[in-house]
User: Which sequence fits this backbone?
């Protein structure tokens, strides 16, 4: 699994790709492409959320380690 930054970057790419697909699908009346675009955007949102969680966990681990080391 990538780190939080990698996941957020991948998520932003998926969102962008999804917005383009959705727009093209809308312009061409291609409902399947629109649906794929929405799916890609949702996947991007999930990857960004995962990246945020990974970073929060890492910060928590660092805080615990610092607290233990300070004792």
Assistant:
């Amino acid at each position: 699994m990538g780190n939080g930054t990698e996941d957020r970057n991948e998520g932003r790419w998926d969102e962008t790709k999804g917005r383009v697909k959705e727009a093209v699908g809308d312009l061409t009346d291609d409902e399947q492409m629109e649906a794929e675009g929405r799916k890609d955007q949702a996947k991007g949102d999930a990857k960004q959320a995962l990246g945020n969680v990974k970073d929060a966990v890492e910060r928590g681990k660092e805080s615990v380690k610092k607290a233990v080391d300070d004792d």
